[in-house]
């Protein structure tokens, strides 16, 4: 530990305590802190350094007190996070003793048991922002071995105090009691005024997302995906939404500890009263209000069983683009929260295809980095596409969608390339640079080369001598100009001080490329723009960059717009490409994919894995062409032919091809079959036969999550499905048993041997799954289910979402031969039971001329419900109905015709229903539904046929005026 020439730190602007404190933390192997009180504002300044110290296995002991109730509960909750990772955090209670006013900081460096360096500070600074940065605080420094006697005396006194019987270990329960009784004024405490932090408020984009989340829950969704570019505050959005719905128990799941730590900090700032705990590794807090869990730990069955499926009100899954792994799926399928939010910065729908199904195909909100820049929430960029002319990428082995790591590192860690990078950097750099490298040896070689050329540079990776937090502090202070990083700054790290990003490694993944770009897009005082130095070589691995950066739909479009100086850039942004890069891309265009196989291979190379069926579907592939290909015959046959299935997967395909084909070709008049399959997968029904009741309940829960499917497919009597599942379960089980369960057991086809049978009350597969095949089979079926539901959602979206009259067409755009007739948007023609409706708001529409309408007699209204969804000409929920007004003088015969019937309810309000009018033998009439799920009922004197159905009109045949 570097000995200081100054023994007294006097504080204030000229000699703040914080830099010396951070320097000592960053070097120590043992850290002992004793202070009278700890405030959140001060702990924020040293928390990352303490966490990094724990990462390098430093021993940390912290002692504080409740003296005058100054210590803040939220600061104690953050200390509990260190305690859960192994720090020893204790408290001195002043209940029986009037005062505790010690302030000491002790740092030791040991090699084994040998103490060879250290320093201690004893003085007046508690852990608060004022005391560590601006306050006039005196702290005397004592160094070891220079003044070993005094240092050891301080250390021995701390040892004695830390074993005092009046001390106790900090717990969440004690913090809760302390927070409830704390009476202190936060404006003036012990003569040390403290700036109160401004309340956290949402940005404009976050506010829009919060409204969208509120709307999606009102619409009945229980899962949703939000896509926000890096830097737009995904975690803050989740915390705001948790606060918005007043969720009491929250689970936050991620795959990296860094993300969990940052999320914990964000949630603690917004709701400091909530208890916070970790569930990862050996730390397993299952009782805290907010639990931050590692998916690697919680995703295992033995840990999931520690929680009830419905124990959380709200679940957040961050970096959701990782969620399609079996571990994530197991966790997502196990829990049944009030709402689950998936968060990602994935840029495009094709990339989201595989994960969107996990959120019930509910994309709630999406904003990319371009919209963030235009909203002044991210800083502009100046992009330079540098020709990486010193590396021949085509000579580096390419395996499984990525370069051979060892060969790539060797090719990049050369003096010629370092010389080229330094030349570019000197010409274009700004003040503080983060460079992304491919390996530790690459980072070390680049840092060494820059240092030898007089540049203040350092390599930072998991085993580097310089900790990450210390490196960032040195970069911000100007002690460093460049950090060469490996993997440490890709996800979950805020680096607003960075004003130059140097991309020295290929980034085959769009996600990784945008994450690295996003590290520098954070706003920071004095930073006008981010300078991006992107080294691009002659390999297909670089093709995703233009499309990711500029949002163009193809490489051809990018080349054309680049040559025309017409790239779609956010405000204040700039882009320039070396001619060598343009030449390379022009050559690549000649080899771009044209057919299914080419698209498959392109997606495979970009995503570094074989694409799923949903991803191919989202990329525009028509699966009919796969089925009609005699060489393949099915999706998985094509995947196997392209080397996309390993040996074990190929065996499962051979053993169960017939079943996969059955799923793939299953008719989808409704979603029921795939919903039942989803329930079987979630309940492990292929392995453990499930009761019809359990399958019906889980299927209902899936439909509740996927509300458009419920609204579209279920008859009216089950539209209030949440109530049905709790109070009227019997009819629902009967209905589900007579529909998909009946179909699964051979009721709807002529196959000789159905794939399922009823074993008592349980649905049992008629085929055996070997133990080693189970996970593979499950994943393959899940892939097909996701694809089939995605197709069905898109195919029926016109009925569910997009049948509203388009606002984009004006009367001038409509063929003058179209008739103009009334449209009643609030007149709901019920296909179910009578429904209240308001027919007073009249709009005008243009309707296609083939319908031969008379504005005096014809009008259009919408169908709502499913009672007429049957027979030769089914009428579905949301259909546009062309109706003709009738009266008693001109009605003619109404028997056996579909009529809109009006009646008044007890309050005198109008209600309407659509039915076939049938005449009874006694001369009376009854109203018949085409859907056999709906009962007929007799006509009464209070009912009046007021309109005759002419036909159902396609949505594209009506346009709002």
UniProtKB/TrEMBL annotation:
InterPro entries: ATP-dep_Helicase, Helicase/UvrB_N, Helicase_ATP-bd, Helicase_C-like, LexA-like, LexA/Signal_pep-like_sf, P-loop_NTPase, Peptidase_S24_S26A/B/C. Residues 417-575 form the Helicase C-terminal domain. It comes from the Bacteria. Residues 215-365 form the Helicase ATP-binding domain. Keywords: ATP-binding, Helicase, Hydrolase, Nucleotide-binding. The keyword Hydrolase applies. GO terms for molecular function: ATP binding; ATP hydrolysis activity; DNA binding; helicase activity. PANTHER family: ATP-DEPENDENT HELICASE LHR-RELATED-RELATED (PTHR47962), HELICASE (PTHR47962:SF4). This is Helicase. It comes from endosymbiont of Escarpia spicata.
